[in-house]
């Protein structure tokens, strides 16, 4: 399924998300809308702090076809706070959710494109410098070339939704996670400890946005 069609199907559903909703209902609607695609939705719960209008956390995973066993698939997981029986979404919250689902799909589609090009996934690992500071697991994850590439593509969705103003890229050190989660994360983890990764990431963001890197 092409991204444009995914975007339209998602948008048609998102207008119904405002208010008190049961997560299984949202998941059912999503799975029905994406029946003839490789995308599947599932639900989860989490125990952690969250911000208003950002209570639903989205994660995704791309799995290439395993010959004779598993067809190629993308699993998108929607997680809600453990204590909440229902998802309560404001207009803003529903818009955030719509954007995040699309952003995650774009990210996973990028992994699919990488896999097709390379014939495998996550081949190159990131080797942090010996004196690097921060959460090592996170650094290893964000530092992988395939992740840098996939995260840089997320920003196209953030700017299409008007969350991120691409003209503010020159001020990338000031962009908040509400504008772009990927820019925020790469800056947080690499700007000081490994500027090469931060620059490589930004360069890809520039390239995807059509703005020339100056
Ligand atoms: Zn990824």
Description:
- The protein is α+β, with helices and mostly antiparallel strands and 214 residues long.
- The protein folds into two domains: 3-89, no CATH class; 122-209, no CATH class.
- Helix content is 47%, strand content 14%.
- It contains seven helices and five strands; from the N terminus they run αβαββββααααα.
- It has helices spanning 3-14, 23-33, 91-118, 136-143, 145-160, 181-190, 195-209; strands spanning 19-21, 39-46, 57-63, 73-81, 87-89.
- The protein has a three-stranded mixed β-sheet, covered by helices on one side. A two-stranded antiparallel sheet has the order 1-5.
- Helix 1 packs antiparallel against helix 3 and helix 5 crosses helix 7 (195-209).
- The longest helix has 28 residues, at 91-118.
- The mean pLDDT is 91.
- The structure holds zinc ion.
When the domains are counted, the total is 2
Contiguous uncertain segments of 5+ residues: none
Using only CA atoms, what is the Rg?
18 Å
Fraction in helix:
40-55%
Bound molecules: zinc ion
Summed over residues and divided by their number, the pLDDT gives a mean of: 91
> Count of DSSP helices?
7
Shape: globular
Based on secondary structure, the structural category is alpha+beta
Can you count the beta strands? 5
The main pleated sheet reads as: 3 strands, mixed
User: How many angstroms does the end-to-end distance come to?
Assistant: 35 Å
Order of helix and strand elements from N to C terminus: HEHEEEEHHHHH
Strand content: 5-15%
């Amino acid at each position: 399924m092409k991204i444009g069609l995914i975007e339209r199907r998602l948008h048609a559903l998102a207008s119904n998300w405002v208010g008190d909703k049961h997560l299984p209902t949202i998941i059912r609607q999503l799975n029905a809308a994406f029946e003839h695609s490789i995308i599947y939705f599932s639900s989860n719960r989490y125990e952690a702090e969250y911000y208003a209008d950002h209570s639903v956390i989205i994660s995704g995973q791309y799995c290439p076809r395993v010959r004779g066993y598993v067809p190629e698939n993308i699993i998108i997981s929607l997680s809600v706070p453990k204590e909440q029986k229902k998802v309560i979404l404001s207009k803003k919250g529903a818009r955030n959710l719509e954007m995040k689902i699309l952003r995650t799909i774009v990210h996973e589609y990028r992994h699919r494109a990488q896999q097709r090009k390379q014939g495998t996934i996550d081949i190159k690992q990131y080797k942090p410098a010996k004196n690097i500071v921060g959460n090592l697991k996170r650094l290893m994850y964000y530092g992988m070339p395939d992740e840098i590439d996939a995260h840089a593509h997320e920003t196209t969705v953030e700017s299409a939704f008007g969350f991120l103003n691409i003209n503010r890229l020159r001020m990338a050190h000031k962009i908040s996670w509400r504008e772009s989660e990927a820019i925020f994360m790469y800056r947080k983890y690499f700007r000081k400890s490994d500027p090469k990764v931060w620059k490589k990431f930004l360069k890809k963001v520039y390239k995807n946005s059509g703005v020339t890197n100056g």
